[in-house]
Amino acid sequence: GNSVTQMEGPVTLSEEAFLTINCTYTATGYPSLFWYVQYPGEGLQLLLKATKADDKGSNKGFEATYRKETTSFHLEKGSVQVSDSAVYFCAQGGQKVTFGTGTKLQVIP
Amino acid sequence: DSGVTQTPKHLITATGQRVTLRCSPRSGDLSVYWYQQSLDQGLQFLIHYYNGEERAKGNILERFSAQQFPDLHSELNLSSLELGDSALYFCASSYNQGARNTGELFFGEGSRLTVL
Fold first, then answer.
1. Phi/psi at B91 (nearest 5 deg)?
2. Chain B touched by A2 (CB under 8 Å)
3. What whole-number distance in Å separates Cα of residue B72 and Cα of residue B60?
4. CA-CA distance, A22 to B104, in Å (whole number)?
5. Are A93 and B101 inside 8 Å of each other by CB?
6. Alpha-carbon distance B51 to B18, whole Å?
7. Which among B2, B94, B102 is the top mutation candidate for probing chain A, defined by the most A β-carbons within 10 Å of its own β-carbon?
């Protein structure tokens, strides 16, 4: 069945560091791909999405590119801030909308 | 505010009991999804309803059931509760074009269930 695998956390970075959170997927066909973010005590929010191969999703300085050849959708940000501290989930679309296990990011001043 | 409302926000109950969690989707959204989030198992898909009909089922226990009503709100019923059922239960909604979902979901703030 469909699945999403993302790197385990927690990830601890200093402010202004570069962030990469890896995500790979297995699916039949070409599902839409998403990154969601969950801030402490809140529900998940859509961060960015890509609906077809080679699409780049971007929002709030975060980017991810839909790579069909490597079945990946890695999340990147060039300079993280303390306010980016949260749990990040990779997901693929479909009737079941499958999520990865989440990666906790902690950014320290 | 995502527009998705879940009640109750917190619930404490005992083993063997039954609880009902309620979800009101965003206005105009036809699909409702239920997820269970626990520390050791991440976000687990339970069930998806579209316009009152069940569309997909995940690893939902037989002790759990759900339904979506004509006004599109949904309820998740958890019975014969066990300690391991303690978790955050999220509802999410989306507007599906036809029967195909793109995966863009709007989440409620969750219902935290504690089973003692």
1. -110, 145
2. no
3. 21
4. 20
5. yes
6. 26
7. B102
- Per the structure block, which two tokens stand in for B26? 């965003």
Find the residue in A nearest to B110 (Cα).
A43
A96 → closest Cβ in B2, B4, B56? B56
What whole-number distance in Å separates Cα of residue B87 and Cα of residue B59? 15
Are residues B43 and A96, on separate chains, in Cβ contact within 8 Å? no
Tokens of B75: 């309820």
In angstroms and rounded to an integer, the radius of gyration of the C-alpha atoms of chain A is 13
| Of B44, B107, B54, B50, residue with least CA distance to A3 | B44
Q: What DSSP string runs through B31-94?
A: EEEEEEEETTTEEEEEEEEETTEEEEE-S--TTEEEEE-TTS-EEEEE-S--GGG-EEEEEEEE
In whole angstroms, how far apart are CA B14 and each of B7, B18, B19, B109, B111?
A: 18, 9, 10, 23, 16
| Mean pLDDT value of segment B34-53 | 89
Closest CA relative to residue A37, chosen from A107, A104, A109: A104
- Residue A35 in contact with residue A47, Cβ under 8 Å? yes
- Look at residue A26 in the predicted model and tell me its pLDDT: 92
Report pLDDT digits (tens) over A71-105.
Answer: 999 999 999 999 999 999 999 987 788 899 999 99
